[in-house]
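Input sequence (90 aa), recorded before submission:
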Amino acid sequence: MEILIDASAIIAYIVGESKSSIVVNTTENANLVSPNILPFEIANALTKMLKKGIIDKIVDMLSLADNFQIILINLLDIYIKKSLEIAFDY
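Predicted structure, token format:
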């Protein structure tokens, strides 16, 4: 089974949010896919968490980034024209 995963689900998992077990249970044994912008979204979320004091130290932020790097996710190219066509149709 292939599952499209987004940054919020990944962040919930790598920071150990209380609902991260839902992410784990839902995606177990699945092939994860996401647009190739996902690493940038994760980096943006982690830096915001550091600035807001949710993450205390840069070392902790980098450790969470390492946790993201070990997740097997097939990053897909984005085709803007096709995306706009789909958005318009639906």
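Checked by second reader. The chain has one domain: 2-89.
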